[in-house]
Amino acid sequence: MSEPLLITVAPTGAETSKADCPQLPTTLEELVATAVECEAAGAAMIHVHVRDHSHAPTLDLGQLKETVAALRASTSLVVQLSTGGSVHDPLSERLKVLDAEPDSCSLTMGTTNFGDDVFLNPWPFVCDLYQLSQEREVVPEFELFDLGHVASLSRLLSRHGLPFGGRVHVDLVMGVPGGMPGTADALVAAVAALPPEVTSWGATGIGRSTLAVGLAALSKGGHLRVGMEDVLTLSRGVPVSSNAQLVSRAAEMGTLAQRSLMTPDEARSFLGIRR
Ligand code: KMH
Ligand code: ZN
Fold first, then answer.
1. Where are the alpha helices (DSSP H) in the chain?
2. Which range of residues forms the domain containing residue 22?
3. Is the CB of 106 under 6 A from ligand 1?
4. How many domains does the chain have?
5. For residue 176, is it within any domain?
6. DSSP letter at 262?
């Protein structure tokens, strides 16, 4: 019997503008309503980027804390804050995200080209963020955009030990222009290269690679991240109307693959989240 399926929703991201996509949840009210719908549709964890009052990405600590509290008040979802932010956020601000005391944080294992931009994650920053997550008892999700990031994860774990909670959960972020392609072949290669300390992995395919990556991940027994951070169309020319639509589709795919859905409470134990 396969492991229950952990569905993470990434509802907002830092790249899409509200003007281009009015259905993107950018206010706190919209985010909380989305989170409630996505939990009902089968999500167990939420990966959060916060927007300011003009809908621009922000790492404002007050807003981050308010968002964590609001999500905890209205849902049971595991709350993961993005430490990636936007490509314009300074590293020092990204470290301060942990001051908002989330359950989990994203932790990208290296610098990557990101479309026309660069998503900066120098090695000393990765180590600082990792050590801070251990001190603060926040469970990192290791974001791997490239095969080189797999090797960096191995190096990080051998130098600095296991994360808080003792579990090592990885998300393969595939199909970013500049990172590994969103194909079944690349997914199989990345999974085969994961270090032995990894206890679970999921994958997300950006843009049109979302279905190829999702289906390949399920075939290999992995978990799924979906959401409007990663994809804005259901199929060519058909816009996503809500994050819950993507979570429902992921849940249907999981059911087809004979996977039960992991509840938020099960996800806490599974990921080693502090209770
Ligand atoms: N917005 C990207 C530059 C993360 O959340 O940790 C980085 C990102 C990864 O979304
Ligand atoms: Zn993100």
1. 28-41, 61-74, 91-96, 123-136, 147-160, 184-193, 210-219, 243-256, 264-271
2. 7-271
3. yes
4. 1
5. yes
6. P
- CA-closest residue to ligand 1 atom 9: 84
Nearest CA to ligand 1 atom 10: 84
Question: Closest Cα to atom 7, ligand 1: which residue?
Answer: 84
Q: Give the distance (Å) from ligand 2 centre to CA of residue 48.
A: 7
CB 171 less than 6 A from any atom of ligand 1: no
Rounded to the nearest angstrom, the distance between the alpha carbon of 84 and the centre of ligand 2 is 6
> Per residue in 135-179, pLDDT tens?
999 999 999 999 999 999 999 999 999 999 999 999 999 999 999
In a domain? residue 2? no
Q: Is residue 143 part of a domain?
A: yes
Model pLDDT for residues 202-225, shown as the tens digit of each residue? 999 999 999 999 999 999 999 999
Q: Is residue 222 part of a domain?
A: yes
> What confidence tier does 273 reach under pLDDT thresholds 50, 70, 90?
very high
Q: What CATH number is associated with residue 55? A: 3.20.20.70
Q: Is the pTM of this model over 0.90?
A: yes
ipTM entry = 0.99
Percentage of the chain lying above the pLDDT 70 cut: 100
CB within 8 Å of 10: residues ≥ 6 apart: 46, 47, 49, 204, 225, 226, 227, 228, 229, 230
In the predicted model, is pLDDT for residue 1 greater than 80? no
14 Cβ closer than 6 Å to some ligand 1 atom:
yes
Average pLDDT on 73-96 reads 98
